[in-house]
Design goal:
The complex is a heterotrimer.
Chain A: H1 2-34, H2 39-44, H3 56-65, H4 67-98, H5 102-116, H6 123-132, H7 139-162, H8 168-175, H9 180-191, H10 193-209, H11 212-217, H12 226-234, H13 242-277
Chain B: H1 2-30, E1 33-39, H2 45-58, E2 62-68, H3 74-83, E3 90-92, H4 98-106, H5 117-120, H6 124-130, E4 139-152, H7 153-158, H8 168-180, E5 184-186, H9 194-208, H10 213-218, H11 232-240, H12 251-260, E6 263-269, H13 272-279, E7 287-290, E8 303-313, H14 319-331, H15 333-343, H16 357-367, E9 371-373, H17 384-397, H18 402-417
Parallel strand pairs in B: 1-2, 1-3, 5-6, 8-9
Antiparallel strand pairs in B: 3-8, 4-6, 4-7, 4-8
Chain C: H1 2-19, H2 21-41, H3 59-67, H4 69-100, H5 107-115, H6 122-144, H7 160-185, H8 189-197, H9 202-230, H10 234-239, H11 251-261, H12 265-296
Classes of the chains: A mainly alpha, B alpha/beta, C mainly alpha.
Chain lengths: 278, 419, 297
């Protein structure tokens, strides 16, 4: 009897949540249908389902923005930055977690500053600094900045995750004669898979979508990333070319949605594992 | 271990290739002279692309790089470029009044352009208008534009309005006739505050406040209250006659609704023409243009004109190359052809072009001498564009009174001076 | 003995340098150093382009806090919005998470749908919702007879903050929910069984058994939510531009305008420092409370 009642409750809750999910998807639906309309259609008949599936907007966005080159740049910058973040933050997170104490505590707080200070406040000084290092208008320079600014959150997450790895593993490795560096890369790092997935996903989403950094750091058009190569072209100080803008949004999001759906099963596990110990 | 090695290898490889690629590009650019320009006006982008091709063919030793950036962050990008030491050789700014231009000049970032060929050939009056208080000219102006009311001739006819309303009373009567015919007089785009701050308040200042008031205001001997109330006659008329929920409509929606024939007038400028006919080609023959009638004195209700595409030239630019470029644009046969076809703007160089109906109306006012240069707002503190826009939105929403707006402007002025 | 100790110390230092050194150097160089210059600028009258500027002491700070009523108002607005955003995001996320830890077969798809906004950037969210508020919701209200939906969501100073809150929830709940689901799944089943044997109902089980266990995790989400809400910028910038009037001008938008559009970089920096100090204070306060609760447990 009790079990039945519980499963009935579960079904009612489930139905409510389906309703919530549909509610959540409504804006996405309107992006998709409006990307097939012309400007007049988007502005005047926003809510209507398109008469026909017209791909003109896609073709124009593709041509005007030079999409393949933008895609390559976004890809290179995102992949290399994420790899760098993973490498540096896993090492730092491990050390800070294993050799706790005042110093480590202080360092964590120091790194957390990045979550507190608004980026707009450091923008101009950062640009001046990068100029001194000749890293302006340079994709490598962007990658370095992403690693510097995005690693702290990853360190925070790794710091928590390492706690769940038993210390005995390192002790036995050290008895076998492995040095601490080798131990970390061969024994500890492979055990941090779930949190690594989380960090990959969160950072990839963030870097892929980032607007401000490439806008101020990249000047040459063939080095631009998707967000500035598309949104900045269609959403203006004055007019908004809504039809192209919405299509650009759709186009720019497709790779990330694909990426997310592929990683979807792991993300739930990942966000889970990471934050729990954070 | 294997995994890590592969990872490191990949990082090095990609990083290396990125560095290599960017380094390579820099080298090839160094051997050529360069003119790079940055601007925010997307309707000349195509013309710029055509200019690039023609110019580089005529001057193979100079690389012409043009970049259009429409976004809200234009100023931020400009500052970032400057901080990075990559200020473009020529760039536009949103306000080319004395205050803003002198700021760049005093910082040593821009150079005077008195000696550029295209500046030398300007008519004296034009030169005088551009000369700043230190006796120099800093902007290479390519075109002027006008702001006023774009109206729908067909709807005017339908409502039985036979002549263009040139005074406030005539405009009031026209609005009544339109409403009687079931037509919304004005379409507003008030969600974008500038559609009122720039397109109504700014022209209003120049129509209502005497020229000399500005110097007194600068010396703190005058107040916005002196003449300010005179602007609200038209503003009240406008607000009383817009579509419902004007604060929900952005600029694009404003143009779209006007293109649909949902209203008879918009307070905008020459720049809306192409966008409107792209949304509704039938509008081509229906649009006309007139100055905003702020007062009942027709001589005060002149057409509001302002410089557009005014280039500041970076102090670190190759000024000879910049000179060559603008000379090519204005004086070479190919340049003139592109300018007249793709830019099609009112210009001080006598380059003829086929005006569209809206521009033609504006030109008729200019030829009749019924126009004014924008003056007052150019010397205001930088934040006044925000004060204008936000005040207009609040006034439309009914959360502030006229008196309070004028009080606020006086207060903001003092505040800005004390920053 | 001494030599061995020394070499051990050297080795330890070398390990620290190897593990933490690289990111410490990068972070200090590209984040901390710019902060310091930002703080220096906050004591000057720099306008963002001139190479000359003067030190003006505390003038910018005094101006921001005592004369600039717009900035103070924007701070007030920011706290107001951040408070509701943090509370509602976390409550909704916890409700959804509790509903979605069950074995209902579509749960995975529902989670994906609610997380999906995170795939898009905040700037773009602003543009999407501009369309939703001005062109969709009203017409939906008319069509369904829900007249209260048909209003000026972004044009009315009384509703504009609420509209921003809605979008912020749409964007943020999915992320926190994912964290909460993880936390709930980590609660030991035997604890819950024991509680239900003692006759506790679902509500009591949640408060007395589950919440204490998951609190540390939940607090991580809260911390990120608090600092994110107080720094909120992208969304307002693209959704309302601070309007109508200044009714939705949040603190960061005010800072941004001051520094980049009104040509007062020094004053803008001072405002940014003030905002940062406030966020740091709130964060410390929050960590204290969390730490206390954890000890009590």
């Amino acid at each position: 009897m009790r079990i039945n009642k519980q499963s009935l409750n579960e079904k009612i809750v489930g139905l409510i949540m389906i309703f919530v999910a549909v509610l959540w998807l409504i804006p996405i639906y309107f992006i998709v249908i409006n990307s097939f309309k012309d400007l007049r259609g988007v502005v005047i008949f926003t809510e209507k389902f398109p008469d026909s599936f017209n791909f003109d907007n896609f073709i124009e966005v593709w041509k005007v923005s030079g999409f393949p080159q933008l895609f390559m740049n976004s890809m290179i910058i995102t992949v290399v930055s994420v790899l760098g973040i993973l490498l540096f933050s896993s090492m730092a997170g491990y050390k800070l977690s294993r050799n706790g104490g005042k110093g480590a505590h202080f360092l964590i707080l120091y790194f957390i500053l990045v979550l507190i200070i608004p980026f707009q406040a450091i923008m101009i000084p950062l640009v001046k600094l990068l100029k001194d290092f000749s890293l302006i208008d340079n994709r490598f320079g962007m990658i370095i900045v992403y690693i510097a600014l995005q690693s702290p959150l990853a360190i925070f997450l790794y710091h928590g995750a390492v706690k769940s790895v038993p210390r005995e593993l390192e002790d036995s490795a050290s008895i076998d004669g492995a040095g601490p560096i080798r131990t970390f890369f061969t024994i500890i790092l492979p055990l941090l898979g779930p949190i690594t997935t989380t960090i990959i996903i969160l950072n990839a989403l963030w870097i892929w979508n980032d607007f401000l950094m490439p806008l101020i750091l990249i000047t040459t058009s063939y080095k631009k990333t998707i967000p500035i190569g598309t949104t900045a072209l269609f959403f203006g100080r004055y007019a908004n070319k809504w039809h192209l803008g919405i299509t650009a949004i759709f186009l720019a999001t497709i790779p990330m949605i694909t990426f997310y759906l592929i990683a979807q099963k792991r993300i739930i596990k990942g966000v889970t594992n990471g934050s729990i110990k954070g | 271990m294997m995994k890590k090695m592969i990872c490191t290898f990949l990082i090095l490889l990609t990083a290396g290739s990125v560095v290599f690629a960017s380094g390579q590009q820099d080298k090839s650019a160094q051997t050529k002279r360069v003119v790079n320009i940055l601007y925010a006006k997307d309707d000349v982008a195509e013309g710029m692309a055509n200019l690039e091709e023609a110019f580089e063919r005529a001057h193979p030793d100079i690389d012409f790089v043009h970049e259009m950036l429409m976004g809200n962050e234009y100023d931020t990008v400009l500052y970032a470029r400057d901080a990075a030491g990559t200020l473009p050789d020529a760039f536009t700014v949103f306000n080319i009044g004395e205050a803003e231009v002198m700021r760049w000049a005093k910082a040593g970032k821009i150079t005077s352009v008195d000696n550029l060929k295209v500046v030398k050939q300007l008519p004296e009056a034009e030169k005088n208008a551009l000369t700043l208080s230190n006796g120099n000219i800093y902007a290479v102006v390519n075109s002027s534009t006008a702001a006023g009311i774009v109206y729908n001739k067909e709807l005017y006819k339908k409502a039985g309005i036979t002549s263009v309303p040139r005074t406030l009373d005539e405009m009031t009567a026209a609005c009544e006739k339109l409403k009687a015919a079931g037509i919304t007089p004005f379409i507003a785009g008030a969600k974008d505050g500038w559609t009122m701050g720039n397109q109504i308040w700014k022209p209003g200042l120049d129509a209502v406040f005497p020229y000399e008031w500005n110097a007194k205001r600068q010396a703190n001997e005058a107040s916005f209250h002196d003449y300010g109330m005179g602007m609200f006659d038209f503003i009240d008329l406008y607000i009383a006659n817009t579509q419902s929920r004007p604060l929900d409509a952005d600029y694009t929606t404003q143009m779209a609704l006007f293109a649909e024939g949902d209203g008879a007038m918009i307070c905008q400028g020459l720049w809306v023409y192409n966008s409107i006919i792209s949304m509704n080609p039938d509008m081509e023959s229906k649009m006309g243009f007139m100055p905003i009638p702020f007062t009942n004195d027709k001589t005060k209700n002149n057409l509001y004109t302002q410089q557009e595409l005014a280039w500041l030239i970076s102090a670190s630019s190759d000024i000879d190359a910049v000179d060559t470029f603008f000379d090519f644009m204005i004086n070479s046969p190919e340049g003139r052809e592109i300018f007249s076809r793709d830019f099609a703007v009112i210009n001080p160089y006598g380059i003829g072009f086929e005006p569209n109906p809206v521009t033609a109306d504006a030109l008729s006012y200019i030829e009749a001498g019924e126009y004014m240069f924008n003056h007052h707002e150019n010397s205001f503190p930088a934040e006044f564009f925000m004060v204008h826009s936000s005040s207009m939105q609040e006034y439309m929403g009914g959360t502030i009174t006229k008196e309070a707006i004028l009080d606020r402007m006086d207060a903001k002025w003092l505040e800005a001076m004390s920053k | 003995m001494k030599i061995i100790l020394n070499s051990k110390k050297t080795k330890e230092t070398a390990l620290w340098l190897f593990f933490v050194g690289p990111i410490f150097i990068l972070f200090t160089m590209f984040f901390f150093v710019p902060i310091i210059s930002g703080i220096v600028y906050s004591f000057t009258d720099w306008d963002a382009i001139n190479s000359d500027f003067n030190f003006v002491g505390l003038k910018n700070y005094i101006f921001a806090l005592s004369i600039d009523t717009d900035f103070v108002a924007s701070l007030g607005r920011t706290f107001y919005l951040a408070f509701f955003n943090v509370v509602l995001t976390n409550v909704l996320a916890m409700l959804f998470a509790s509903a979605l830890v069950s074995n209902f077969k579509h749960n995975n798809k529902i989670r994906t749908a609610i997380f999906l906004p995170n795939v898009i950037s905040m700037v773009i969210c602003g543009f999407i919702w501009q369309v939703m508020f001005t062109k969709i919701i009203g017409k939906f209200g008319v069509a369904t007879g829900l007249g209260f939906l048909d209003r000026s969501w972004l044009g009315d100073p009384d509703t504009v903050l609420f509209s921003i809150l809605l979008v912020s929830l749409w964007y943020g709940v999915g992320y926190v929910m994912t964290i909460d689901i993880a936390a709930l799944q980590s609660v030991n089943e035997s604890l819950i069984e024991a509680a239900s044997l003692e006759g506790a109902n679902g509500w009591q089980t949640f408060w007395k058994v589950k919440l204490p266990v998951i609190l540390p995790t939940v607090m991580v989400g809260v911390f990120m939510n608090v600092s994110g809400s107080l720094k909120m910028f992208d969304l307002v910038f693209s959704l309302t531009g601070g309007g109508p009037g200044r009714a939705s001008e949040l603190a960061m938008l005010n800072v941004y305008r001051e520094a980049y559009q009104f040509n007062n970089y020094g004053l803008g920096s001072a405002k940014a420092v003030i905002l940062s100090v406030i966020i740091i204070a709130i964060t410390i306060f929050q960590f204290r409370i969390t730490a206390k609760n954890e000890v009590e447990m």
